[in-house]
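Good morning,

Attaching, inline, the backbone tokens for the sequence recovery test we're adding to the shared suite. The designed sequence is right after.
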């Protein structure tokens, strides 16, 4: 029996807004295994962002336990969580979150800087991923010189360069036109096909149809957890072997 990559055990998350107690997550239990492509959906205020923040070690549960790769990270210090984020989590954001002053290669290398990876190795890993994502001719361009789809490819390469246990994506096609969005989803499909564990928060039913599983949240609770099957993934470019295994 394999250890789940992500395991929530009775997780609760409570916020106080203007002295009002808000239950963002209420007794959530969930397992995601290695190599799964899971989509999290739900209406605004359902707890999707809170769940993703906890998965990405950007926040801690108020109660319950979160195990990442078998390690309970629920009560770790800020420094310890930061270390885990840099080594075990890959993030893909809707707004790309690239550093405007850095070129493509340097943006991809950023996570390795925090791991003290030797410069030569970092440069080689970043260049390899850039090439696999169709950015070989853009290595020295800055974000403002790239299209939205190219910027998102840089963000995907950055999310993979640390060879994470899991890749977390928050509305990865939200700022893209339909054609470019489809290209980016093809890249994500390929990550899944290569064995990466991928979790996407989205409102897009087209993305949900591609995933292995759809997790539906409402009022801070899981109301549906349905396994299905991805649709055709033909034509997706190769982006490298899945790491973090």
């Amino acid at each position: 029996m394999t250890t789940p990559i992500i395991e929530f055990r009775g997780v609760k998350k409570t916020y106080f807004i203007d002295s009002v107690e808000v239950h963002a997550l209420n007794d959530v239990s969930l397992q995601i295994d290695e190599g799964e492509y899971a989509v999290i959906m739900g209406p605004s205020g359902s707890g999707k962002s809170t769940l993703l923040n906890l998965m990405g070690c950007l926040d801690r549960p108020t109660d319950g336990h979160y195990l990442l790769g078998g390690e309970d990270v629920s009560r770790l210090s800020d420094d310890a969580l930061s270390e885990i984020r840099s080594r075990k989590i890959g993030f893909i954001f809707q707004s790309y979150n690239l550093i405007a002053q850095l070129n493509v290669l340097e943006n991809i290398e950023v996570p390795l800087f925090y791991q003290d990876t030797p410069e030569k190795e970092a440069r080689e890993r970043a260049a390899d991923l850039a090439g696999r994502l169709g950015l070989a001719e853009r290595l020295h361009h800055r974000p403002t010189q790239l299209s939205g789809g190219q910027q998102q490819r840089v963000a995907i390469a950055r999310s993979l360069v640390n060879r994470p246990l899991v890749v977390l994506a928050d509305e990865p096609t939200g700022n893209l036109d339909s054609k470019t969005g489809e290209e980016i989803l093809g890249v994500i499909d390929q990550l899944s096909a290569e064995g990466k564990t991928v979790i996407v928060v989205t409102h897009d039913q087209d993305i949900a149809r591609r995933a292995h599983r759809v997790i539906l949240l409402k009022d801070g609770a899981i109301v549906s957890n349905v396994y299905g099957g991805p649709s055709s993934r033909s034509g997706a470019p190769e982006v490298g072997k899945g790491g973090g295994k």
